[in-house]
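Hi,

I'm pasting everything inline rather than attaching a file, because the server keeps stripping attachments. The sequence lines come first, and each chain or strand is labelled.
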Amino acid sequence: MILTVKIRPILSDNCYQCHGPDEKARKAKLRLDTKEGAFRVKDGKTVLTPGKSGDSALIRRIYSRDPDEQMPPPKSIHRLADSQKDLIKQWVDEGARWSTQWAFVPPMRRAAAVREKQRLGAQSDRFVRAGQTGRGGIDAITRGGEADADSAC
Ligand code: HEC
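And the predicted assembly:
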């Protein structure tokens, strides 16, 4: 979880310029700001393979010394510190956990979101119950009545 919190800002600072939400600026049609993008498989190559940094193109790219391969590209203004590379590698080897919210949502808002979800959950439970009694109500009573009659015989 801590890694998740640390990885996102590194990618955001160093990769999103070319692999982020801006479609026009996007390179290699690769998005690293969405789960689909970061875990995509193209030509049998996986950008991120959870638990296997050795099978992850992203890891190979950030450690590469080949200027044609290296990410961020050497001619860009972006640089990853060795400690940042190691952190990303560690994160991948530990399962590349991807939280859609990236723990970016402040705790207060998250608590509110949970409450809202619970409220909606409770509400739909009520609807389901109402639906069941509405539809099955009479049947249930009739069946109950018959059963009673049977057992009385
Ligand atoms: C200045 C633009 C730029 C930045 C910043 C950048 N990239 Fe790239 N990236 C490219 C370009 C251009 C390509 C396609 C050419 C190539 O394959 O080298 C590419 C390709 C890739 C690929 C291969 C995609 C594939 O399917 O073959 C990966 C993985 C990648 N980048 C990861 C990263 C990561 C991780 C970062 C940040 C640490 C990053 N890039 C930052 C421009 C950028």
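The longest helix spans residues 107-152.

If the labels don't parse on your end, tell me and I'll reformat.
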